[in-house]
Write a structure and sequence with these properties.
20 helices, seven-stranded parallel beta sheet, 14 strands, Rossmann fold, alpha/beta, 2 domains, 446 residues
């Protein structure tokens, strides 16, 4: 079955390259570094260690250091991987790190978040296409000791190549929705063979674990530890920065602030419709609008202006004035601080069928959340927060305006909802330490 998959992938490769080229019209980074996607990367010093040692050539210390490979597809998974890498790197200062992504935004987050932490111990490339002829040169050049894949990143040829090299593979913070499980089930033989080559699955919740087992993963290789995104630490520096942002945005009028975060196409229109309705009662309300992808910054700014709204861009470097109605968050790496500076947050990817983004971040700040109905990426998290009263699901702009207005109108109710969200985040922490233990155990075994 995997051979059919491989040939289908090969036949589809021209379309994939055309897709990358097409996306490069908006983001030129998609047209760069294609050699990495074919597995062509510089050879790591010591990658031919076995041949050299056979002839009495002793590798240097850096060459002998274990290379831990983390794969995170894009921004969300990369941000989830950062605390895991940080914790493991602190416990094992001799380990080297290889991080792969598939998108330019994920690549940028790798450099921004991990280079200060790893201090010269980081290699970063795009993940090669899932073809044996692309994976073989990549693995031969780098020879990682273990593959740690984040959340849902499962590739049949990648796992087969690691298995042939007797390299352990572990899926961490694993999640599998009912919809995804049904999709894998349509290719049951391919899925069963692929999962059988994994050394371990560290799932988020028992329901996720059961779905992995139902697809053929041996039960003894699956454990559920919770979602590592709950183990979010907000430092004193971030608190100070968020307070400074809040002071700048609110100004002397102490204006209320509504943050719409990680929006996708089709959601900005809904948010702006809700915002116009809210301004009848809250004329000084500031909307902080943060599109998920940088390629949409300019188009969202145009959309706001076309609707007659005064827009200030965060990249301008000046805070919004009293007459500014929308602050466009067109910078990278600041969203966590933004959550700490607002009164209410909408978390995007949920009014369109994307599956939702990380609502744990506003919850950790004690900020109540509104979301749309598409939450399958965070089904358990959203259910916990909704049951506690820290999250409300809205079907349309009218419901969104009504709920945000209710919280802005009653500050005590708003604080109580935010406190409930924070309590959910606090009660569900601890998955990170268990995940670290699972990775370390696998390294010891191999």
């Amino acid at each position: 079955m995997r051979h059919l998959y491989t040939w289908f992938f090969r036949l589809s490769l021209p379309l994939m390259l055309l897709h990358l080229w097409w996306r490069g019209r908006a983001d030129p980074a998609y047209r760069k570094r294609w050699s990495e996607r074919f597995g062509l990367v510089p050879r790591r010093p010591g990658a031919r260690r076995r041949w050299r040692e056979r002839f009495g050539v002793v590798p240097d210390r850096a060459s002998r250091a274990p290379l831990i490979w983390i794969h995170s597809v894009s921004v969300g998974e990369t941000l989830a991987a950062v605390p895991l890498i940080e914790s493991l790197a602190a416990r094992h200062p001799g380990w080297q790190w290889l991080v792969t992504t598939t998108t330019p935004t994920g690549s940028q987050r790798v450099h921004d978040a991990l280079e200060p932490i790893l201090n010269g111990r980081l290699l970063h490339y795009y993940l090669p296409f899932d073809l044996p002829e692309c994976l073989a040169p990549f693995l031969d050049a780098l020879r990682p000791n273990i593959l740690v894949s984040m959340e849902t990143e499962l590739w049949p040829n990648l796992l087969a190549a690691c298995h042939r090299r007797e390299m352990p593979t572990i899926l961490v913070n694993g999640r599998l929705s009912e919809k995804s499980a049904r999709g894998y089930g349509h290719f049951s033989r391919l899925s069963r063979d692929m999962l059988g080559q994994l050394s371990k699955v560290v799932a988020q919740y028992p329901a996720d674990a059961e779905r992995f087992i139902g697809l053929g993963m041996p039960a003894e290789k699956v454990t559920a530890v919770g979602n590592i995104k709950f183990d979010l630490h907000i430092g004193s520096g971030q608190v100070s920065e968020a307070q400074a942002l809040s002071h700048q945005w609110r100004g002397r009028q102490k204006r209320p602030v509504w943050l719409a975060a990680s929006t996708h196409g089709g959601e900005d229109e809904i948010v702006l419709e809700a915002y116009r309705a809210l301004r009848d009662e809250f004329p000084d309300l500031l909307l902080v609008l943060v599109p998920r992808h940088p390629v949409r910054f300019d188009s969202v700014a145009r959309l706001c202006r076309e609707q007659g709204l005064r827009v200030r861009r965060r990249s301008d470097g000046t805070p919004p004035g009293p007459a500014d109605q929308v602050l466009l968050g067109d910078t990278m790496g600041e969203l966590l601080r933004f959550y700490g500076a607002c009164d209410v947050a909408f978390v995007g990817g949920s009014m369109v069928p994307v599956g939702g983004h990380n609502m744990i971040e506003p919850a950790a700040w004690g900020v109540p959340v509104v979301c749309g109905p598409y939450l399958h990426n965070f089904s358990t998290v959203s259910s916990l927060m909704e049951e506690a009263g820290g999250l409300v699901v809205c079907e349309n702009a009218a419901e969104m305006a009504r709920q945000v207005g209710s919280w802005l109108r009653d500050r005590q109710q708003c604080k109580a909802a935010g406190a409930s969200a924070r309590e959910v985040a606090a009660q569900n922490s601890g998955a990170l330490a268990r995940t670290v233990s699972e990775v370390e155990a696998l390294m010891r075994r191999f």
